[in-house]
Write a structure and sequence with these properties.
Length: 326
């Protein structure tokens, strides 16, 4: 089991299971809980920002799963950023960081030889419920900047939809990179900085919503969707009108065609989630293409293979970076 390979990220010592169903690096060392079959290699369980994400994925636990929606939205997104053919994951060990409810976990697990999936929040429990039937997959609650694994130990490290919500993009990328093995790949994306974003109504709404209690934020974003979704749905096939509407009312419904195949109820549930995700997040970092390229080029022995801007359905910038043999 992977549990035998876990390390204490604060001491770099191998963790072992004791007779109290806890992990420790020594009898007198720090103890980490194993709860519901999930090692919890984190500190400060009651982190407020972390709870926001946990609650979101508990409420919308299956909204983005292709297996539930009958779509291929998540499949197409992960295929694109990985290079088009998921067979490249065969016989590979994959680390997924920031898995949420497991929309990509259920895809990666079908192809990887071994998948380790992590999340800082209790969304990891939601992912476990959704995907624990994959026997090649391990679930760990862990911090992106304190990952409990040996360095250079994964063929692929995948972190999609996460970096923009961390406190330091560059630090997070460096920590992810440290776990990529020689000839392995780092797969990441990030919201892109554009001046027009600063003056969007979305940021105005977010300024107030992120100050609300989590319960009020959920209720407010749902009422927004209930009120305006019928208008958006009526014009869903007119992308120009949708773009205009989004500039006024920042509902989480895209004008890129990725969700056009969904029926009304499925699309509305997706919109509930994306509206809350976009307006209630406590941390939303933006980065320029130039800055992201600079960070990647500073990585030791790396090769930037791809970077895309604003692909339909993307979060802005998407990168696939290869670690060359040192």
């Amino acid at each position: 089991m992977l549990m035998n390979m876990l390390t204490n990220p604060y001491t770099n010592k191998i963790l072992k299971k004791n007779n109290r169903n806890m992990l420790e690096d020594s009898p007198d060392g720090e103890k980490f809980y194993i709860i519901n079959n999930i090692p919890r290699i984190i500190k400060n369980f009651d982190n407020n920002d972390r709870d926001m994400w946990g609650e979101q994925w508990e409420k919308y636990y299956s909204t983005q799963l292709d297996s539930v929606t009958g779509s291929d939205v998540s499949l197409n997104r992960i295929k694109f950023i990985l290079g088009g053919d998921l067979k490249v994951l065969q016989n590979k060990t994959v680390l997924e960081v920031g898995s949420g409810a497991g929309r990509f976990t259920e895809i990666l697990a079908k192809y990887a030889k071994k998948l380790v999936t992590t999340d800082l929040s209790r969304a990891i429990d939601v992912n476990y419920k959704n995907n624990s039937h994959f026997k090649n997959t391990e679930f760990i609650q862990a911090d992106i900047n304190s990952l409990p694994f040996e360095k250079n130990s994964f063929d692929y490290v995948v972190c999609v939809g996460v970096l923009q919500h961390t406190i330091d993009t560059e630090l997070s990328i460096q920590n992810l990179w440290s776990h990529v093995g020689n000839n392995g790949y780092l797969i990441i994306d990030h919201y892109q900085f554009k001046l027009k974003t600063l003056f969007s109504t979305g940021e105005l709404f977010r300024f107030f919503i992120k100050k609300m209690s989590r319960d009020k934020a959920f209720k407010f974003t749902r009422k927004m969707v209930d009120l305006f979704f019928p208008i958006f749905f009526k014009f869903r096939n007119n992308k120009k009108i949708i773009k205009i509407l989004k500039k006024i009312i920042p509902l989480g419904i895209e004008a890129d065609g990725t969700t056009d195949h969904m029926d009304r109820n499925t699309l509305k549930e997706w919109t509930y989630l994306d509206t809350h995700d976009g307006l209630a997040d406590p941390i939303k970092r933006l980065i320029t293409k130039k800055k992201l390229e600079k960070i990647i080029n500073s990585l030791n022995a790396s090769k930037l293979e791809m970077i895309s801007e604003m692909r339909p359905g993307s979060n802005g910038l998407e990168c696939r970076v290869k670690k060359m043999i040192i």
